[in-house]
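To: structure desk
From: M.T.
Subject: fold request, one chain
Message: Could you run this one when you get a chance? Sequence is below, nothing fancy, just the single chain.
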Amino acid sequence: MKYFTTKRTVVSKVLFGAGLALAFAVPGTASAMDCEELKIGSAISLTGKYATNGIHAKNGYEFAIKKIDENGGVKIGDKCYNFKVTYYDDESKGDRGATLAERLISQDKIQYLLGPYSSGLTKAIAPVTEKYKIPMVEAEGASRSLFNKGYKYLFAVLSTSEQYLASAVALAAEMAEKEGKKPSSVKVAVAVENDPFSLDIRAGVLDDAKKYGMQVVLDEKLPRDLSDMSAILTKVQLLKPDVLIVSGHSKGAATAVRQIGEKKINVPMVAITHCEAADVTGNFGASANDILCSTQWAETLKYEDPIFGTASNYEKEFKAAFTEYADKKVPYQTAQASAAVYVFKDAFERAGSLDKEKVRDALAATDLKTFYGGIKFSEAGNNIAKPMVLRQIQDGKYNVVAPSAFASHPLNWPRKAQ
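Reply: Done. Structure tokens follow.
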């Protein structure tokens, strides 16, 4: 088939050189060279509109593989294994992702998959893995619609998408009350991409706005190519909402922050997704200040595990391994991708076997504390052990402001046009 003759990227486990692998070998444990290969596959976006986050996720997978190798590999009985991952570029296209998943399973004989980037691509691949009864641990598909299909082989480490920005509505209600107003006085504007992930975010926001009796004054879809939302922002200027919610992955985030700055949009609260992945602080400077950014993970959170250490240690070591992130905030997409690999390691070791059904059952029984947060799967396969948090960009720094139990800084309110 023609898909099989297009370009592909095949990457084995990252050792950063055999010498480095040996240097990190711990006395009393097997070095990477002593372990057998354990093959995993992934169709992921290395080109196309999701490439930025696809590469972040791939880097997160690779970093975890390196760390697990350094810590003695995956131990099953008296043997150890090192993950070897085969990647194919799905070009951000669902049909191609499904075809590549078929190839990984049928031609490459791979029995375990790491997920693609985005809910849409995960939705395309999940029926394939379910058909062949292939366990897939995914880190980048958050749409709640993935978890009402009865899938038995799909496991997601991240919180579902309706939770991403709903907390911004609660925060706006709290601010209104502090000003002596009723939460029902808050006006909400919503602009999202027409994809499963963003539509779920919209649903969560609208549900919460309805609970408070808030008026939704704008509810629009972003342009298909995510490159221009000026027409929507013109309406925002006229309608004067108190809260503007935007979801359009990294490209949509970049467009939103750039054009909000250019048009000097003065909305008291702006909340968007994918701030770090779009590097809005590095690319747009002061225009990003006081914007709220949803995140699955932050390096300031008090999470820890034996492989990666604390959340802050993960960030430090990841930046050392991937120097292109040295002056940037590490995107949560990388952290959750690393967590997915760690979940596989844990499941293989508890299963004590390479039998995919035993591994599937071990995945279903996961109850794991990690640098990324708690991971425990519902019967539907979504993670029910980790909350979302909101960070606000304050003078170029990402500071956790909600929920209050996790807050490291107070909220700057209201946001002023820069």
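Reply (cont.): Confidence is low (pLDDT under 50) at residues 1-32. Let me know if you need anything else for the meeting.
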